[in-house]
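Lab notebook, page 48
Experiment: co-folding of the full assembly
Goal: obtain a model of how the components sit together before planning crosslinking
Operator: M.T.
Materials (sequences as entered):
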Amino acid sequence: MAGSIYGTLFQISTWGESHGYGIGVTIDGCPAGLPLTEADIQTFLDRRKPGQSRFTTKRKESDKALILSGIFDGYTTGTPISILVKNKDQRSRDYGTILNTYRPGHADYTFDAKYGIRDYRGGGRSSGRETIGRVAAGAIASKLLTQLGIRITAYTKAIGPVTVPESDYDYACISQNSLYMPDNSYARQASEYLEKCITEQDSAGGIIECIVTGMPAGIGETVFEKLDANLAKALMSIGAVKGVEIGDGFQAAKALGSSNNDAFCASGDRVSKRTNHSGGILGGMSDGSPIILRAAIKPTPSIAQPQETIDKSRSPVSLSIHGRHDPVIVPRAVVVVESMTALTLADLLMINMSARMDSLIGFYRRELHC
Amino acid sequence: MAGSIYGTLFQISTWGESHGYGIGVTIDGCPAGLPLTEADIQTFLDRRKPGQSRFTTKRKESDKALILSGIFDGYTTGTPISILVKNKDQRSRDYGTILNTYRPGHADYTFDAKYGIRDYRGGGRSSGRETIGRVAAGAIASKLLTQLGIRITAYTKAIGPVTVPESDYDYACISQNSLYMPDNSYARQASEYLEKCITEQDSAGGIIECIVTGMPAGIGETVFEKLDANLAKALMSIGAVKGVEIGDGFQAAKALGSSNNDAFCASGDRVSKRTNHSGGILGGMSDGSPIILRAAIKPTPSIAQPQETIDKSRSPVSLSIHGRHDPVIVPRAVVVVESMTALTLADLLMINMSARMDSLIGFYRRELHC
Amino acid sequence: MAGSIYGTLFQISTWGESHGYGIGVTIDGCPAGLPLTEADIQTFLDRRKPGQSRFTTKRKESDKALILSGIFDGYTTGTPISILVKNKDQRSRDYGTILNTYRPGHADYTFDAKYGIRDYRGGGRSSGRETIGRVAAGAIASKLLTQLGIRITAYTKAIGPVTVPESDYDYACISQNSLYMPDNSYARQASEYLEKCITEQDSAGGIIECIVTGMPAGIGETVFEKLDANLAKALMSIGAVKGVEIGDGFQAAKALGSSNNDAFCASGDRVSKRTNHSGGILGGMSDGSPIILRAAIKPTPSIAQPQETIDKSRSPVSLSIHGRHDPVIVPRAVVVVESMTALTLADLLMINMSARMDSLIGFYRRELHC
Amino acid sequence: MAGSIYGTLFQISTWGESHGYGIGVTIDGCPAGLPLTEADIQTFLDRRKPGQSRFTTKRKESDKALILSGIFDGYTTGTPISILVKNKDQRSRDYGTILNTYRPGHADYTFDAKYGIRDYRGGGRSSGRETIGRVAAGAIASKLLTQLGIRITAYTKAIGPVTVPESDYDYACISQNSLYMPDNSYARQASEYLEKCITEQDSAGGIIECIVTGMPAGIGETVFEKLDANLAKALMSIGAVKGVEIGDGFQAAKALGSSNNDAFCASGDRVSKRTNHSGGILGGMSDGSPIILRAAIKPTPSIAQPQETIDKSRSPVSLSIHGRHDPVIVPRAVVVVESMTALTLADLLMINMSARMDSLIGFYRRELHC
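Observation: model returned without errors.
Model output:
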C-alpha cells in the first residue's frame, strides 16, 4: 500500500532513502494564506540535524530545506508544498559489509521478507533520515497551530534509567542541554549514563513527553478516528517507538476510579478540570485541558559490540557495527514527536470544522454569500 | 468526519447508541468464499455480553447477532455484510438525573463541546455498547485469520495492582475464570480486589495483553502504515484505553541496545529470533515472531461515590452514579482488543498481497488467465 | 476492496441484496443539528419506489425507511445514522431458471469471474434495489444542501430517441408526468415509444439531466478531487450509466474557443458569467453559475425477447427473461442521480471549509474560544 | 483537502506550478521488483512535451525526468518513487498583464474565490504543465500493466468537427501524424481545420479515445468503486475534459435493449461477447472484452481574439491573450488520458487480489509459508 502518505485533509507524502538523492515531502491540503518561509522549516530541521552533540552520529549533513512549490509571495496558496532536502555525506562503502547481513533490531530482514529487494545503503528507507520529511511537514503544521493559539512542547523525559520527575520540570532548561531535558542536572546524569554506554559499545533508549496547550475542546472523531487513537498511530509510526501513553497511561490501569476521574469545574463559561489524569482527552476528543503524550523509544539497535545474527543465505554471522551511529536517538526524536503531533492535530482541527450544521450555515453565509 | 469507519480494504462501518434501536456494523471488503454463520459471530459477542459475572453490569441483553446481507449458501459473497444487534433492556429513565450533568471521566462534556447536542441516554454513542459492532466484525476477521493459520490470544494481564507475571501464564486458565486471566489464583486475588472496590463504591482498571502467532513476516506498510502504528491506533480507539505497548514497550526505554536487540537465527530456510523484545515487529513489519501487544485500561469512570462536577449551565453539582455499571470493564474488553487486532491484521494482510511485482504477475497468470 | 463506502467527510456505507432481509445505509459524518425525520427520507424513496406507473416493475414494495440511530429529539447528533428498508415482495423462485445463466447486459458473469460465488436471486447486490441506500442517504445530503440555499433539480431529458429540447423546458411539468420530463407533450411521446417497446418485448434507455443552483464558487479540490471529477464518478457509479457530461459536454469538443468561453461579468461584488457552457465548473471548482450534469442510461438489459447467451458451464443457452422488470429505468433513476449529486456536493462543501487560513482562525476564535 | 493525491494502493501525489522550480510526483505503493529506468518515464513525457508540432505551445521545455528515490539496481523497491521535472523556459513577465484579470474559460476566478490568493504566473497549478506528474506516474503504471499482458492504446478520435469513423481506424497511423489520429487523411483535414483556427485567432477541442486490451474479467469494486466510475473520475480530473463515455456511451441512451445487450459466447473455458456495446465493463467490473473510453476535450480557452471579462476589482476588461498557447491541446492530452487510465487500472488490479478467500489462502501458503 501507499504507506508513506499520512492524513485526511492535511495530508503529507514523504519519500527518500538514506543514501539516495535526498529526502522529501509534499504537503497537500495546507490551507491558503499561511505565511511560510524556508527558515520556518529550517528551524525544525536543525533540531534533528546530526552532529549537534557527541551523542549523535558524526555524519555531516547541512539538511538544508528547499521549498519547490506551493508558496507565492511568502504565503501558502492551497496547492501542494514540495520540500526537498538533498543528501550530502553519503558513504555507501561503509555499508558494504552488511549488504547481506540482517542487523538485529533493524528492518533488514523484514524489508527482504516483504519486498525481496532492499536498498541496504544506510538502511535505505528505514533510516532515521526518513524523519526529515515528517519534520519539514511538521514545521508547517506547527506554524498553522501557532496561529490558532495552540502550542506544542516536547522534551526528553528519560534517557535509559534517568527520568526527570514532573516536580522538577523547568521548560526553560529544554533548550539549554543537548538532550532536550527539562532539567539540567538530570541532563548531566543522563550524559554520564550515555558516556558509559559509548565506552561499553552499547546504546540507550528513553521517553519523550509532549504537552499541547491551547487546544479547543471537541477535537477528534468518535469512534475510530479518536484524537488519542490518531496520536498513538502518529507516534508509533516513528521508528523505534515501542509504547505510547496518554495522560496517566499505564499508571491509570492501577488507579481507582475515584482518584483517576478528573472533576469538572467552571470559571464563567469556560469549563476546566481540577486534575488532568485524562491527559486532555475524554471520549476520544480533546477536553480543553493540556494534552499529555509519552512515547517510549527503544535503544539504538546499531551497536559496536559483536552480535550474533544470520545473513541472507541463513548462515550464522557475528556482526560488529562500526558506522556513524547515535548511541541514543531520543534527543533527535523529540522534534519528530512534536512534528507528528502537530500534523495530527492540524488535520483533526480542519476536519472538526464541519461537525455542526450551524457552522456550515454560518461559514457559507459569511464567507461566500456575503 | 466519518469516524465510525475503519480499515482500507477490509473496512467496517459501525453505528448505534446505548438506548436506541440497536447496534450494528457493516463489513465491506471481506473476501468472498469465507464460510460464515451467525454462530461464528455469537461466540464472540457472548464474550463481551453483560451479566456474566458479578463484576459486570446487571443490564440484561441477549446481544443476539442477525446477519442481514452478504452471505449466500453459508459463504461470504464479497458484498457488504450487515449485522444487527437489537437493544432490549434500555431503561432511559435511569439517566434522567444526569441529562444535563457532565460525569467525570466520561465523554458528556466533549460531545456537547463538539456537537452542541447529545443523546445522553446511557452514554449514547460513547457507551461501551458501541464495541458490539467492533466485536461482531472482529469475529469475521478472526475467522479469516484462522484460515490463514493465524491465531490471536487475548487475556487480562492485570486488574488494578494485581498483575499476572509472565512466568505464571497458563493459557488454559483464561476461559476458566470470569476475569479471563491466564492464572486462576491471580484471578482470585483480583476478584477480592474488585469486591473491595464494589464495597467502597469505587472501580478498577487493568491491562489486557494480546499475542498473535502464525503471522508471516513482512506485514505492515512503511512508514506511516506500520503494523505497530495501526495496532496502536486500533487499541487506542477503544474507549478507556490510555496506553499501548508493543513487545517490551516502556521497559525497552530503560534497556541497553545489547540486551534489547533480538539475535536472528535460522532453522533451514525459516528465520527466527532467539528472543522477542521487539514483540514480533521490526521496522513496522511483522518479523515472524509472535506479536505481543498490551493495552492499559483506565478504571470505569461511573462510580457510586459522590463526585464534584458541573452541569451544562456551568453550575457545580455533586453527582452519585447509581446506574448498572461494571466496577471493571477489563474482562469484557478482552474480546474487543482481540477484535480490533484481528480487523487490523486482516486489512494489512490483504494490502500486503500486492507488495511484489512477481506476486501480481503470478496472481493474474494463475487465477485469471489460467 | 470496500467498494460500498462513498465520501471523505460526509461518508456513506450501503449494504443489501434484492432478495435478502433488506437494504440499508449508514451515513457517517453528517453534521450535528440537522433536523431530520423518517418522512424526509420517505419522500425521496417514494420517487424511486416501484409500481408508480406501468413502465416500472410490478414488484410491490412499500420501501419504508426506518431510522435506527443517529437522531435525537428530531436532530442529527453527529453520530452515524443507520437507515433500514426491509424487503417484502421477494419471489426467489422467479429466478430459478437463471441460476446458472449469464444474462446479457447484466453483472452475472462479472460477479462470478471476480468472486466465484454469486447471490443470483434478483440480481443480488447488482439489483437496482441497491440504489435505495444511495437515495436514503441522498435525502439527508439534500436536506443539508437546502439549508445552505442550494437546490438540485433532476429530470428525464430523453427516453430513447425522444429528447426534450432546452427551449421547451418547464420545470413545473417534472412532477406532472410519470416519466419526470420537463414537458408533458414530450412525455406523452416518450410514453408511446415505451408502449411500443413493451409490445416488442424490448426496452429503452435515456438521458437524465441535473441542475444545481445556489452553489458558492470555489467548491472542489484540484487536481484529482475536482468537482466535475467527483460528480462523474458519482453518476457513473450508478448501474446502467454509460456516459457523463458537464455543461456542453461532448458538444464542447466540436466548438471553437471563442464560442465556448463564457465571458465573466459582475454585478456589484458578485461575479457571474454571460453564458454557461462550462456547466458551472471551471478548473474543477464551482464558478457560481448553475451546475449542469447529464448522465446517459443504457436500456434495461432484462427483456422478454429470446437472447443468445451461455451458462456457467460455458454451454450456449437461449434465454427469455420473464420477471418483473422495468422497460425503462430512467424515470426511477432520476432521484438516484439527484442523490449522488447531493452526496458529492455535501462532502465537498464540508471539505472546502478549511481551504483558507483565515477561515480556520475565524472558526476557532468564534466558535470555540468565544 | 489534499486533492493532489490519487489512488488507494497504487497512490500518487503530484505537485508543482507552471512557473515554479518544477513539477513532480511521488508514486507510493508501486510493487517491488518492477524494472524501471528514467528512459521509461522519458518516453511518456516526450509524448506530451511542447514544441512537437506547430499546433503546440512554443515554450521550450526539455521536460527531463529525474528519479530521486525508490529505485535500486534498476528495480523498484516498494518504497516511494519521487520524480522531478525542472521548469526551464519560464517567462513570467508574459503574464504581467493578466495578473488581476479573470481569463474566460480558465480557473483564475475559481482559484481566487476558493483560496483568496493565486500564483497567476502561467496559470500556476492549473496550468497544463500539472499533467507532467500524471504522465510520469502513468509511465510506471503502464509498465506494470505491460508485465501483466495489458495494453492501452489512446488516440485522437476527433479534432473539432473532424471525426475519424471507427471503420477507418488504422492504429499504425497514430504515431505517423502529429495529431495522434488513427488515420492520416483525417489528420490532414484536422490540420487544415486547426490552421484556420490559428488564422482566426481561435482554438479547437476534440475527442480522445482509449482502448485497453488484455484485461482480466472482474476488475472493479461494486458499488461505488466501479471500474467505470473510477475511470470517469480519472479522465474528468484532467483539465478541459467535459464528458466521458464508456462503450457506446451517449448512443446507448437511444438504443433498444435488444441491440445494446451483448450476447455472451464461449470458446473452451474462455468467455467472450459477440459485440462490445458495453465497452468491456458490466456491473462496474471488467468483462474481459476490450475496455473502450472516450473523453471530450473543450477548446483551449486561451485565444488571441479580444474577449470581454472582468478583473479582480470586478471592473470590465477587454482581454487578448498573446502568450505561447496551443490552439488545441487534444494531441498532447492523449498520453495524459492513457496515463490516468493506467494509474486507475493498476490500482484496481492490485485491490482485486484480495477479492477471494482462496486467493488469500493460496498467497500466504505459497509466498510466505512455503
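Interpretation: The CA atoms of residues 46 and 339 of chain A lie 13 Å apart.
Next step: discuss with group before ordering constructs.
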